[in-house]
Amino acid sequence: MVVLITSDDERIVVEDDIAKRSGLIRDLLAAPWDPKDGDREYMGIELPIVSSDVLKKILEYCEHHKEEPFDDTYESEDMFADIDEWDLNFITADPHMAFEIVLAANYLEIPPLVSLGSKAVANMMRGKDAEEICDMFNIEKDFEP
Amino acid sequence: MSLTSIPDELLREVLLYLPRPSQNACLLTCKAVHAVAVPIVFRMISISFGSLQEHGFEPDDVLVIEKTLWETQKARSIEILDYICRNPGFARVIQRLLVYAYAQNDDAPKILGRLVTAVASMTHLQAVLWAGVGWNMDPLQWRLRLTSFSVKSQMGIDYATVENAEETTAIIPYIEKIIGHNTETLRRVAIPCVTMGSIPPNVFGRLTHLAIWNCKDLHHVDQIFLHAHSLVSLALVEVIGPEIFHVLRAHATALPNLAQFKLMILEQMDPDEEETDTLAIRDFIQNRELDRLDIDAPGSISELILDVLPKCERLSALGLDARGVSSDDDVKMLADSIPPNLVALHIQHPWEGLSLDSYELQPLLTKYAEMPRLRFLHWQNPVPSSRIIVEALAEDIPMLDYMGLGTTFWRIIREVGPDGETIVGAERIQQAKLMLDVWNDDELVDERWLLEWHDGET
């Protein structure tokens, strides 16, 4: 088991297989550990930019995909490439969390989730003009053509 | 969280998933997003010399409307080129250049002069599509590292007229020099058949996409099948003469990686050889993992070809010249043969002026309604092109975005009504506009492939 410590100091215990969906955690667990530094599981892995809400969502994704091979080179340029129905429901359940998920998935190095989240954010922007995009994403419109 | 608080590389990924109009909207939001969006929006620019009419096409109502569109494009092209000439550093973001050089009008020298200067600054240019007759650029300007080079004499399906043959002859030396300058990097090429000899055999081995047009003399076409082992996309367009069938027969199992195949033959098949020649096509396409297939060979679509289609499970775009299919049984067989998961379909029929209730059309209408991914349907020409008919058809095809009936095109609009119901509308668009929309929208790759035989830019 691995203990992950979130930005709001919550300690979340996760199975290795699930945590290792993250390239960052996989690398940290593979690194040599000196027992003098303490019990590895007790010390945990600090994730200072990931909140517990977001991490729980991401772990839900990792749990669902734990049987799949790692895909660090994941690339998808096709917006309409078939998205798994579970993934679609997962990412669209809370559109505003999609942002947080993309950011955290990027930090945790989970490329398929970065891609899925990016598509969800892009989908929120489709068909909107500049004013609407600014309103939706709290952007101060400071560009004049 | 604000869009501006995510790292640039993530914002870039998000923007890459957007269609061009939404990317353009992002340009106008804030300076931070603008800076990330500029290299994405302007990685491809399109330069137009003006309308087709100025090249001697007879104007009719449709073309007059299109002329306005092309004039707007021309004015914008001059603005873009002026901007690049004043800000050469900006040109570094341009990776793909599309030039529609149809018109030999008073503005052409002005545009050409600016283009020569602008191209010299495009140090990261990778792909060039040059369509049209105004080819008199100094080829030395093209000493670049192009991975994709496409040239053709007209937009869309092109016919090997005498006039075009002269134009083709005039551009041969330029094409040969450009290929010569870029032999190390080229992967995608679309050129007239007569310039095939300029491609050395070792370059064929590196090509992944090849479109050959104006195929009157197939002397060099054997080279493709003998050397282009990496080819995934092959288009043989404007083929004249029966030699093509000998070539296909001789190389039925060549090009093992081929996933996209387009064959456009200009002449009606010889009735005495029709079955043998159709078998040559069938033997070439069967047992391949094709995702795009377009057979535009008058007379070839028979059960021999239709039998093969259901086995093409990966097919996403299909074009068929089904003008020889007219009996009830044949139409049913045609409908049964169309793979249900197509995204784009172009189909030609022998009929004209039928109503949607006509019994001949029912198997196909039922089929279209059972195609959940179909976004583009170009149907020639069984029913008249009217808004009512298009809207009626689109109501039954849930994902349809564009429809062509004969030579007119429509964009499908779906809106949510007051009671939550979907209201389907249709807006007539000009073919040139459709072409530009499709070219500017990376999501419409399958439609683009059917509209445009060359695939050098995808």
TrEMBL record, chain A:
It comes from Punctularia strigosozonata (strain HHB-11173) (White-rot fungus). InterPro entries: SKP1 (IPR016897), SKP1-like (IPR001232), SKP1-like_dim_sf (IPR036296), SKP1/BTB/POZ_sf (IPR011333), Skp1_comp_dimer (IPR016072), Skp1_comp_POZ (IPR016073). Residues 1-66 form the SKP1 component POZ domain. Residues 112-145 form the SKP1 component dimerisation domain. GO terms for molecular function: ligase activity. It comes from the Eukaryota. GO terms for biological process: ubiquitin-dependent protein catabolic process. This is E3 ubiquitin ligase SCF complex Skp subunit. Gene3D superfamilies: Potassium Channel Kv1.1, Chain A. Keywords: Ligase, Ubl conjugation pathway. The lineage of its organism: Eukaryota, Fungi, Dikarya, Basidiomycota, Agaricomycotina. Belongs to the SKP1 family. Pfam families: Skp1 (PF01466), Skp1_POZ (PF03931).
Automatic annotation (TrEMBL), chain B:
This is F-box domain-containing protein. Pfam families: F-box. SUPFAM superfamilies: F-box domain, RNI-like. Residues 4-32 form the F-box domain. It comes from Punctularia strigosozonata (strain HHB-11173) (White-rot fungus). The lineage of its organism: Eukaryota, Fungi, Dikarya, Basidiomycota, Agaricomycotina.
